[in-house]
Every structure is written in structure tokens, then in C-alpha cells.
Amino acid sequence: MAAAASSSSLASGYDMPWVEKYRPNKVIDIVGNEDAVSRLQVIARDGNMPNLILSGPPGTGKTTSILALAHELLGPNYREGVLELNASDDRGIDVVRNKIKMFAQKKVTLPPGRHKVVILDEADSMTSGAQQALRRTMEIYSNSTRFALACNTSSKIIEPIQSRCALVRFSRLSDQEILSRLMVVVDAEKVPYVPEGLEAIIFTADGDMRQALNNLQATYSGFRFVNQENVFKVCDQPHPLHVKNMVRHVLEGKFDDACSGLKQLYDLGYSPTDIITTFFRIIKNYDMAEYLKLEFMKETGFAHMRICDGVGSYLQLCGLLAKLSLVRETAKAP
Ligand SMILES: Nc1ncnc2c1ncn2[C@@H]1O[C@H](COP(=O)(O)OP(=O)(O)O)[C@@H](O)[C@H]1O
Ligand SMILES: [Mg+2]
């Protein structure tokens, strides 16, 4: 920890992104997703890596896991034994036919029982043509080369590849898991903070560790102090308290107050999508009758869908508030 802190002061003028600086190097240091991580640990220990697909939402440690696993498996042979291709590299059919095939044919001396590794990050952005070209290569060279694919949705990987791979699923990280990692960084970088500031970061990140670390760094470099106000300024999201008040007004039957709260947010320039996503997250955690909560979530979901379809007007959001008020009235009636 001390080493990390001093290196930051040495590199004066240049701040390394914290997401890179604090990217875990070992599989064991990856936070959360215990099942997935322990499976990878077993692979790292035994050395026989199957073809893998890691799938899950952004910022949960997929790329980190693959890199750490490859480093643990190949150690000093990493440079020779690993081919890394991500979405910014050309991965059309030609590359699969030439570059990947050449790599698979290359002779590399590795410790017994180890294989060369091809890392295909963000593999769901590969065209299905390129994926088709890959399946054969995967099979022919399976005794010397193994593949690790990372993607957000495994369904965008063609079936024949899926059936050749072991699937490891990642899910969003819990607030507690994000907090524990934030504390490590906050301590190492000596960031002044109040607990509400970290809570705000966790709220805005919504289970995405990359976003949490980026928001922490952005707040720190902008204000040198992490509190609620600063975090929401930097992240440019509607303030949850403000949205919470709107929900409270609806529940208290004060439709006009709810609408004027909405108007304020809208006039501040927040887009309907920003507002509705925050709205949904507030409702999800709001302390209210379960029946009401479910109805509220349903209606919010419909409104979100209409906004995604392009009807993102002030009227749309007002309509949602009206609908929610109605739901509440009818819930009270019997
Ligand atoms: N589970 C995790 N444990 C610790 N750090 C993480 C974790 N997930 C993400 N991070 C942090 O976020 C950054 C991005 O993670 P990455 O593995 O690239 O996410 P993705 O799942 O989108 O590939 C990493 O550099 C690391 O600092
Ligand atoms: Mg990634």
C-alpha cells in the first residue's frame, strides 16, 4: 500500500487512471462473484485451462480475471504464450484465419501441462462470420492453444462456440463489495472523504466497479474531497434526494409538488433517461408497501420503455407521476 501511494506522488503531473493502477494482478484479489472466481482459481492451480467464456455486465472483473489467469498460468512465458485481441483490434475473418491460426501453429516452449492462450475480449462484437471461422481453429489446435472469451451477453456468441467452452458468469457487484475495494483505494491515495460521499459513489456506480473507481478519481481530482454534493456534480446525475422527494410527494398524494420537483430536474437539463433510471433505483430501495412498490416498478419500467422508444418528453414523465398517483389511490381504496 505504501509503495502504491508513494509511486503516485513520484509520477507528478501524470495521474494514472486508478482503474488500471488498482487492477488486481491475481485471481484471488478479485472482489465478489465468489463462484466464478473460485472456479478460475482452481484452473489457475491445476493449469489445464478449458476454453472459457466469461460473460456479465461491464466493470465486474471479466477482463481482469482473464489477464490474471493468463499471468498465473504462464508467468514468464506470458509474452510469447498469450495473444490478446480486444474490440479495438481488427478481428474480422481474415485475422481469425491468419493471425490467430499463425499463433496457434507457433511453437512455444511452455512448462508441461500448460497451453498457449488466445484472449478475445469483448467477443460479442465479433461478426458471426469471424466467429464461424474461429470454431474450427479452436478445435484443430485444442491440444496446444486454449481460448478465453469475454463478453457482456453470451447469447451473442454463436452456439457452436458456446458448446466448446465452459461458461463462467459474472454478475453486478454488491454495494458491500464495491465499498471494500473503494476503501482500499481511498486509503492508498489518502483521499479525504465522508461516508455519505462513498455511498453516493456506490449509488451512481450501480454495481460497476470501473465506474465506481472512475467516479472516485474524478471527484477527487475535481474537488479534492469526496462528499455527496461533489459526487453528484461530477457524475452529473440527478440528486437521489431530489428524486426521493418526488416519490414521497406521490405517496403523500401531493401530485403538484411531485410535478414541480420533476420540472426542476428537467429544467436543470437532465435527460428523461437520467431521470427515469434514478427514479427506478430510488423506488427499488424505497421503504413502502410491497404491492405498491411492485406496481410502481412496473409502471416505471413501461415509461422507461417508451422513453427508449424515443418518446422522452416532459409529458411522458408527468404521465408516469399521474399513473403512480392513480395506482396509489386505488391501492388505498379497498
Ligand atoms: N471484481 C473486481 N475486483 C476488483 N476490481 C475490479 C473488479 N471488477 C472490476 N474492477 C476494477 O475495474 C476495472 C475494470 O474491470 P474489467 O475487468 O476490465 O471489467 P470488465 O468486466 O468490463 O472486463 C479494473 O481495472 C479494476 O480496477
Ligand atoms: Mg472488459
Description:
This protein is of the alpha/beta class and 334 residues long. Helix content is 60%, strand content 7%. The protein has a 5-stranded parallel sheet with strand order 2-3-4-1-5, with helices on both faces. The longest helix is centred in the C-terminal third of the chain and has 19 residues, at 290-308. It starts with a helix and ends with a helix. The chain binds adenosine-5'-diphosphate and magnesium ion (MG). Residues 19-20, 22-24, 30-32, 58-64, 150, 181, 209-210, 213 line the site of adenosine-5'-diphosphate. Adenosine-5'-diphosphate is lined by residues 19-20, 22-24, 30-32, 58-64, 150, 181, 209-210, 213. This is AAA+ ATPase domain-containing protein. One of its GO terms (molecular function) is ATP hydrolysis activity.
Task: Based on the model shown, name its key terms.
334 residues; alpha/beta; 60% helix; elongated; binds adenosine-5'-diphosphate; binds magnesium ion
The residue ranges in which pLDDT falls below 50 over 5 or more consecutive positions are: 1-13
Straight-line distance between termini: 60 Å
Average of pLDDT? 91
In terms of DSSP E residues, the strand content is 5-15%
**How much helical structure, as a percent, in the residues?**
55-70%
Say how many strands there are. 5
Cofactors, ions, other ligands: adenosine-5'-diphosphate, magnesium ion
Supply the helix-strand structural class.
alpha/beta
Q: What sequence of helices (H) and strands (E) makes up the elements?
A: HHHEHHEHEHEHEHHHHHHHHH
Largest sheet: 5 strands, parallel
Radius of gyration: 24 Å
Summed up, the helix count is 17
Shape: elongated
Please list the strands of the largest sheet in the order they lie side by side: 2-3-4-1-5
Keywords: ATP-binding, DNA replication, Nucleotide-binding, Nucleus
InterPro entries: AAA+_ATPase, ATPase_AAA_core, DNA_pol3_clamp-load_cplx_C, DNA_Rep/Repair_Clamp_Loader, P-loop_NTPase, Rep_factorC_C, RFC_lid
Subcellular location: Nucleus
Domain AAA+ ATPase: 48-174
